[in-house]
Amino acid sequence: MRWWSAANFVSNAGTWMQLTVQNLLVLQITGSAAATGLSMSVQAAPALFVSLLGGAAVDRWPRKLTVAVSQALLGTVAFTTALLVALDRIDMTALLVLAAVTGVIATVDGPACALLGNDLVPVEDVPSAIGVGALVHSAGRLTGTALAGVTVGFLGTSAAYAANGLSFLFVASVVPFLRPAPGAVQEPRSTERAVADRAEMGVREGLAFFVRRPRLVALAAVTGLSSVFGRNYGLTLAVLVTGPLAGGARAFGTVSTVLAVGGILGAVLGARLRRPSVRTVGLLAAAGGLLQVAAGLSPSLVVLLVLVLPMAVVESVSDTAGTAVLQTDPPAHLRGRVLGVWSSTGTVWGLGGPPALGLLMEWAGARGALVGGGLLVAGAIGAGLLGRRRTASAQVTLAARDGGMTGREALGTAA
């Protein structure tokens, strides 16, 4: 697990370095901010249409082989881009094609890497492993974003792509030497996988399982609501800081730094969760919504900075808890497909959330969007939890009246 975490840190740093440089490269080629957004959308779009197939592939193929091959392919794309940039042969068409290819490969690589990390630790430590993964992701993002400017300044744009290619090859070279700890869940053998393939032949089984599983549907609802109205802080806080609070780019940079620090602290706390649940995710998301309301009412930048840290911590712990539920609730032979469904829905939130939030800010302003969005998130989750409690109480009362079990036993079952 230590080797896997180190490899993931290197890979995440390389990925964020490339993403940062790619935005600068698109601006250099076209001079258009809209083109920059287009390149990001093209890379994200395959997750909307191909993730179900990618998840099915992860369920059917050996995990280590899948990760090694997908990482090698991603490295090849990065090296190809580096070569084109170095030879001054890159244009917008080639960049969009390479971004789309990267997005397609990522639909397999993402769930495969997530599940491989879980396979390395005992079952009871899976939530902690997911928390470690979140911490590695946050640290890699900070490191990669910082290294991007340094690399471009001293070595050029092509060097950043080449460095990312090397990071993928490093992961691929580590994978064959990974050994699960005692007590870890064993990956299904080829014969078991073949039986599962005959019983669950297509991607529809993963979608059907997701839809029929109330806790996964509830998790999707909570996460989707929070993603659209409660987590686009890069957009809402940027407008709040530079507008009503009369700050500048430096002030927003300080806010962004505090958000990043809070994300890392939240990942550390999330790694200590032993039995995360959808209820935990909902309560944390509701708390984040209320903190967002307070942030929207902030009279000064100082007050906002005080609120931003717990906002980021709550968001990070909630994400870690939700990921743990998502990756442990489905049966082993369906987890790749369930992650594929989740990736598709997450892409919908990612593509549709910012425009919807932008319209809300146009209508209500930055403060109104933060306050209204936070109240909507907290109110909807509170209503859902209250409705679930009433339903559970009614079931307990009915069971006790029918004589099926005692009141104490019924309450234990409901809990």
Please characterize this protein's 3D structure.
The chain is mainly alpha-helical and 415 residues long. 83% of the residues lie in helices and 0% in strands. It contains 16 helices and no strands. It has helices at 2-30, 33-49, 51-60, 63-86, 92-118, 126-155, 157-174, 190-199, 203-212, 214-229, 233-242, 249-270, 278-296, 301-328, 335-402, 407-414. Helix 1 (2-30) packs across helix 2 (33-49). The protein is globular and about 60 Å long. The two termini are 34 Å apart. Mean pLDDT is 84; it is low at 194-201 and 405-415.
Summarize the structure.
With 415 residues, the chain is an all-alpha fold.
Q: What is the count of helical runs?
A: 16
Structural class: mainly alpha
Listing every helix as H and every strand as E from the N terminus to the C terminus, the arrangement reads HHHHHHHHHHHHHHHH
Global shape = globular
The percent range for helix content is over 70%
How many strands, which pairing sense, and closed or not: the largest β-sheet? none
Low-confidence stretches: 194-201, 405-415
Strand fraction equals under 5%
Rg on CA atoms, Å: 22 Å
Overall average residue pLDDT:
84
Note the gap between the termini.
Answer: 34 Å
| Number of beta-strand segments | 0
List keywords for this structure.
mainly alpha
How would you summarize the topology of this molecule?
Layout: H1 2-30, H2 33-49, H3 51-60, H4 63-86, H5 92-118, H6 126-155, H7 157-174, H8 190-199, H9 203-212, H10 214-229, H11 233-242, H12 249-270, H13 278-296, H14 301-328, H15 335-402, H16 407-414
